[in-house]
Each structure stands twice: as C-alpha cells, then as structure tokens.
C-alpha cells in the first residue's frame, strides 16, 4: 500500500491559492473517502466496492481518501478517548484489506469550510484522477453537508466520474456504525462490537512496570499502557482476551501459543520510537485481563484505571515491549475482595471461563 500525505500547513497554502497540489501520482482510480474510524464491516464494504470497480473498469488503483486526525479532534467537541482505530491500527487493517493507495490528509478548519463541488473537483477528480466514486448510504460532503448521494451523482455526470452507493451493512438487524460500536464497548459488549467490526476489538499498548503482586499469587500480569491515549477502552471489568506478543520474548516453557500472526507494521513504543522492523511475526496467546481500579489492593481504588493482562502458558519478559490485546468477552464486573484467598478463588473461575472463550473463538486468518 502506498501513502500520499498532505500536512495542514501545505493544505492551507493550497486552499489559499499560494501553492499547487503535488503532481498527480495516481491514474484513473476508484475512490472512497471518510474518517473510517473502526474500519468496520460497513467500511470494508466500501473498500470491496473500490476493488471491484478497479477490476471491472480496468483502473490503476483503489484509493482511500482519509484524515490523519479525526475531524472531531480538530474541530473540538470530544475531550475524552473515543477512537476505535488509531492511525497505526488503521494502516495495519488497510494493508490487509488490499488497498492500493491511501491519501492521508491533515484535516483543518479551512478544509471544513470548502463546499463539496470545489472539494470533489479540485482534490478527487483533477488531482487524484478519480473516475469512479464509492460512497456510503449516508454520505454528506462539504461545508453545508450538501454533497449527499443525489448531489454527488449529479456532479459525476458533470465531471465525468461514475458513482456507486453502498447500502447500509447490518449486524443482527441493526445498521453498523462507529457510534453503535462505541456504545457496545462502553457497555462491555465486546461480542457485539466484534460482530460489527468483523474482528475482535483490539488495543496496541506498551508493557510498563506494575506492582509485581500478580506473580506472588500465581497470576503474573503485564500492565499495558495504550500507545494512543485517545483509544476508546471497553467498560471496566474482567475479560477473556487474546494477546499478540513479539516472537523473540518467549523463553523456555512459554510456548503455549495459539498460533503465529504476520502483522505488517513495525513494533513501536508509546513515544513512536521503533523497537523492531516491520512485518514481524508475532505469537498469539490466550489470556484474561482486568481493566479497572484494582480496589482489592488499593484502598478506594486507583485514580486512573489500569489494564492488567494474564497470558496463559506464557513465560518471557515483556517489559518495554509492544503487545496487541484483543478483547473477546466480558466475564464479570470488577469488585473488591475481602482477602487474597477469595481473589485467587475467583481468578481460578475467571481462568476457566476465559480459556473456554478463547477455545471457542476462531483463530485469526
């Protein structure tokens, strides 16, 4: 997958007429555009529509026009974490979907004020060479949201591009949307979220130092700090999970792996520094996690919630390394136990339940 980037400063100069767009780097192409947060099954239908149009019409590329930062972050209105897919996660999913070109724009207030006709002609047709547009059923472009499906179809006749509207994708009778997935996760319903995403909801994080208490009670945990603080996390509680770890961290006796995963991204830490090169083979493990305030060991609970992950049949040192956590099913809410013995008894039940969920979850790929 090839990427074309326009940063905010350059884009503002283009819109002010102070400079030109770069030379065209795509030929006749099929294109879709949007924020694509989640890259859920509805978004995947748009990608499949582009790929089908490319093959049908003999075009040179399937191109996604999207934004480096979610427009809601640029224009305001969202203070807390809400992203379903961070930029790094989006790149990984799109690579696996077979997209040819990603046009990654820094969304800006000046771009938000552009009318849909000028935007489509300037950026999509004249610059990128779009000859076929694929849009969702609820498409609205431009400052006045005037670029709906009917308007875009009419503009296509004028500018010479064909146009397809992809119907809404449903899951169990409900239209799939990023908002619906967020709502499911905030209720702890990872099964419904996965049904709409087409894959388990996942978090990339760095393993950071913790209390070390889990090892003393027979359940060692990795404390996982999200790589992106804007990443939405499910409701607090105990979950069955799968964990993807770098292949070089496993020591003797720790090869209880479920399989191997090829992830087309480099391993990076929270600061964006590269730890290993791209296209690393990762090992996949079952596990269980607690996301919450750890009230049993911290009176009144921690001020900030913590992700603590116990990997099944794993031995190795993950400190400072990057892992991918897939949230499979919520087992119970977090609660305070009267003593360590009560906690251990519950953890054994949690482990049994989590192992069953992991067994019942289809292997990736």
Task: Please outline the helices and strands.
Layout: E1 2-6, H1 8-15, E2 29-33, H2 41-57, E3 61-67, H3 71-75, H4 87-97, E4 101-105, H5 109-112, H6 116-127, E5 130-136, H7 149-159, E6 162-166, E7 170-171, E8 174-175, H8 178-186, H9 190-197, E9 201-208, H10 213-216, E10 222-226, E11 237-246, E12 259-263, E13 267-268, E14 274-276, E15 280-292, E16 306-311, E17 322-332, H11 340-360
Parallel strand pairs: 1-4, 2-3, 2-5, 3-4, 5-6
Antiparallel strand pairs: 7-8, 9-10, 9-17, 10-16, 11-15, 11-17, 12-15, 13-14, 15-16
Helix pairs in contact: 8-9
Overview of the structural elements:
By secondary structure, the chain is an alpha/beta fold. It has 2 domains: 2-171, 3-Layer(aba) Sandwich (Rossmann fold); 200-360, Riboflavin kinase-like (Elongation Factor Tu (Ef-tu), domain 3), CATH 2.40.30. Helix content is 30%, strand content 28%. It has helices at residues 8-15, 41-57, 71-75, 87-97, 109-112, 116-127, 149-159, 178-186, 190-197, 213-216, 340-360, and strands spanning 2-6, 29-33, 61-67, 101-105, 130-136, 162-166, 170-171, 174-175, 201-208, 222-226, 237-246, 259-263, 267-268, 274-276, 280-292, 306-311, 322-332. The strands form 4 sheets. Strands 1-4-3-2-5-6 form a 6-stranded parallel β-sheet, with helices on both faces. Strand 7 (170-171) and strand 8 form a beta hairpin. Helix 8 (178-186) packs antiparallel against helix 9. It is elongated, with a radius of gyration of 23 Å. It starts with a strand and ends in a 5-residue tail after the last helix. The mean pLDDT is 89.
């Amino acid at each position: 997958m090839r990427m074309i980037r326009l940063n905010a400063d350059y884009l503002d100069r283009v819109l002010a007429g102070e400079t030109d767009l770069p030379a065209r780097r795509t030929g006749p192409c099929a294109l879709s555009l949007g924020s694509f947060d989640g890259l859920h099954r509805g978004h995947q239908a748009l990608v499949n529509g582009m790929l089908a149009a490319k093959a049908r019409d003999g075009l040179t590329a399937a191109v996604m026009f999207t934004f480096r930062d979610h427009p809601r972050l640029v224009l305001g209105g969202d203070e807390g974490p809400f992203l379903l897919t961070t930029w790094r996660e989006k790149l990984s999913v799109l690579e696996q979907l077979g997209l040819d070109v990603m046009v990654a724009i820094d969304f800006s207030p000046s771009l938000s004020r552009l009318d849909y006709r000028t935007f489509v002609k300037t950026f999509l047709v004249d610059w990128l060479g779009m000859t076929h547009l694929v849009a969702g059923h609820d498409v609205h472009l431009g400052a006045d949201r005037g670029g709906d499906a009917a308007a875009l179809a009419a503009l296509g006749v004028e500018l010479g591009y064909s146009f397809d509207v992809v119907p809404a994708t449903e899951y169990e009778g409900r239209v799939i949307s990023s908002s619906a997935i967020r709502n499911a996760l905030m209720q702890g319903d990872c099964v419904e979220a996965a049904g709409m995403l087409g894959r388990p909801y996942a978090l990339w994080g760095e393993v950071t130092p913790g209390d070390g208490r889990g090892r003393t009670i027979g359940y060692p945990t990795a404390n996982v700090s999200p790589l992106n603080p804007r990443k939405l996390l499910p409701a607090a509680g105990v979950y069955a999970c799968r964990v993807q770890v770098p292949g070089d961290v496993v020591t003797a006796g720790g090869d209880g792996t479920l399989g191997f995963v090829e992830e087309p991204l480099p391993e990076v830490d929270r600061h964006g520094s590269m730890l290993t090169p791209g296209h690393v083979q990762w090992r996949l493990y079952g596990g269980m996690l607690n996301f919450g305030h750890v009230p049993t060991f911290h009176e009144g609970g921690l001020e900030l919630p913590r992700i603590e992950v116990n990997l099944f049949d794993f031995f190795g040192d993950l400190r400072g390394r990057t892992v991918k956590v897939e949230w499979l099913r919520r087992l119970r809410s977090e609660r305070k136990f009267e003593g360590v013995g009560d906690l251990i008894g519950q953890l054994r039940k949690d482990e049994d339940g989590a192992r069953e969920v992991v067994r019942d979850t289809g292997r990736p790929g």
